[in-house]
Amino acid sequence: MLYALGLGDKVVGVTRFCKYPPEAQSKPKIGDYNNPNLEAIAALKPDLVVLQVNPVRLAERLQALHLKTLELDQHNLAAMYESFRLTGAATGTSARAAQLVDSLQGALLNLRKSAAQFPRKRTMFVVARTTGQLDGIMVAGGSSFVDELISTAGGNNVFHDSTAAYPQVSLEGIIARNPEAIIDLGEMSGDTVSEPYKREIIALWSRAPSIAAVKQHQVFVAGSDVYLVPGPRVVDAAQAIFTMLHPGIKP
To answer: Is residue 29 assigned to a domain?
Structure first.
């Protein structure tokens, strides 16, 4: 978000999960979402610390060190757009933030119109599971922004009725809901996924042959954190989901 607002040269530190754009990876690391290094943050002497709402009271702890913070809620698309506006106001880039929001909203609206021409598919998005097993499965629920991306791309999230953003579900529960398309995030090994790895994940799901997505060869491997990062690349994520749900159709 900060780079999209033209503030990349002013970013002095990032978390270990900040991998895009590539130049962000060369910035000093200050820990991560759950385990921030307050000493490392303070040592960088930032004018502003931008953070997501988190479970470790980070804003409060930083304020105790007399650091200015901007705590953002990005749990859904509306909140994400508002986070752009708030960041723009706090950094003197309000005009650019407004343009960014308009661009993203317009692109997602156009994608939704394209998807409306086709039958909607019952879709499940797997964000995590036990490696090599159909166990410990965590999916995108109805309160996640991923649910909105699925809907935009022409799918109906089979776990839309879950009040949790990313609930853990059983294989039996998945079989009962019988998704027509399964998107498995895999190990998020990078923005590209090797063909052998795709075959490995598809073979894993073949252990549940009664699921419609397995029968119809509609198991896809996403393999990128772009689907879980609420930022300017949400359009890329939605377009990729569209391509999975409507193969051969240009969004």
So the answer is: yes
